[in-house]
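Blackboard transcription, Thursday session:
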Amino acid sequence: MRKEFGNKIAVRKLSLTVPRGSIFGFLGPNGAGKSTSIKMLLGLVKPTSGEAFVLGERAGDVAVRRKIGFLPEHFRFYDWLTPAELLRLHGRLCGMAATKLRERIPVMLELVGLTPHRDKRVHDFSKGMMQRIGLAQALIHEPEIIFLDEPTSGLDPMGRRLVRDVIRAQRERGATVFLNSHLLSEVEVTCDNVAFLKDGEVVAAKDLHALGEAEIHVVVRARHLSPQAVAGLAPWTTAATVEGEQLTMTARSSDLLPDVVRHLAASGADIYSFIPERASLEDLFVRIMGEDRGL
Amino acid sequence: MGCWVMAGITFREAARKKILWTALLAGLGFLTLFGIALHYQIEDFGAHSTAPFIRYQILSAMLMVGLYVVDLLAVVMTILTSVDTISGEISSGTIHAIATKPIPRWQILIGKWIGFVGMIAGFVALTFGGTIAVAYFMGGVMPENAFHGALLVFLECLLALSVTFMFGTWFSTLTNGVIVIGLHGLAFMGGWLEQMSGFTESARLVAVGVVTSLIMPSESIWRRAAFEMQTPLAGSLPFSPFANVSIPSPTMIAYAGFYLLVALTIAVYHFHSRDL
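(Written on the board underneath:)
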């Protein structure tokens, strides 16, 4: 899909496949086009060209919206309602019966930790509480896919943990979660897959469970490292440098590490430590996105 | 279903707005003032032994002025309460959580419209009915075709509401308010120009008035309502605020109804097709 606002290209080329039943992280710097992309998938914004299918149906159709839950980045609603009234309204907009809502609302309030505040008006809520009630309205009708736009912004550590648990519970019941977040540490521990959006285009997609099989940095402390032993690492590494007793190398895959250890030992090196350092999602993000452009 | 959920929440939202209660307070204040004025006028009639026929005509004229104030108050209240319901929710992002629910966008807009219609109906019934009740119980006067007049005032409010909704799908709250108030100002001026033409006998003034009524027919509806409600004698006076000069025809009322439907249709279409 592509989206232009006048002369400005908000999304250049969005081409994306999200596996059902997974937690999908949608990453990118500010201004990359993440929110516009989500809005296109939800039918809030019409693409200039291209089309998207959500759960096999055209994005934005009423039929598919029945199966969607959405937490906007800045959840706002009529703030004179109580949280129970707000959930009842959203449930009714989703076509839920009154009897079903009577059962479901207390469960949702408990899930997001707002039961003690059920009689307060929403205008007395903190930002974190607004995020919690926003999450509850997104889940009230047990959607098959949930779009969460920065769900942990404004939450304290307890709130973040709660959201993380709720997201995982959604995956457990078979739902798909589409997560847009700047908190890469959260994404790293929550998501199954991620896509990186840069200048309105998906520039990389990764399976986070497979990240360990990709290139890996290793720091080795060893004595009697001969130049021949280091040169002999070439079949398993892309780079290797020695500084005193420290050998730093980039192995092609973590699967090759036992071969590296055997090679070094066979070449007469005394190995004191062998520490593989997985690149964090943040490292990957910085490497893919390049330098900070102050957006 | 979605339509009625939206109508219900919009009615509650509108009923919470301070402007509605301010308008109702203003209406009550006006009714009190109107009652005091009627009371003094009736006392003066007793002191001067005014003939019943003259007395009836004067009290009827006072009632018409009262109903004109109610009409103005209702239209202004309609615009001010509804001016941000579309544009405000778009700019604040409130609409995002609603428009992603499984209801067509037209149901969101029409539901909101119905909610306001309910609120306006209540306001007009209270203020219009209250004014007539005060005049009837204090002075024994009753307008001609009161129900017809009330319906026309209600129609004028619905027209204002639909036009406000239409521009609200395009513009920010402030711009929308300026445009709609400006259009009503134009219609008001056009109406008075037509009335003045009865005094100056200028065909060109009538033409200007007709054109402004076509651009915004709200004032025409009030003038038709005034024509329907006034006493035959008041209508025969050559120049009065509600004189029968260039009376808007039933065709003009039909045009206003058509205008309302077109404005609402454009609002629905544009809200359906725009990015949120």
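Lecturer's comment: Chain A touches chain B at residues 39, 42-46, 62-63, 65-66, 68, 70, 72, 74-78, 80, 89-90, 92-95, 134, 137 (CB under 8 Å).
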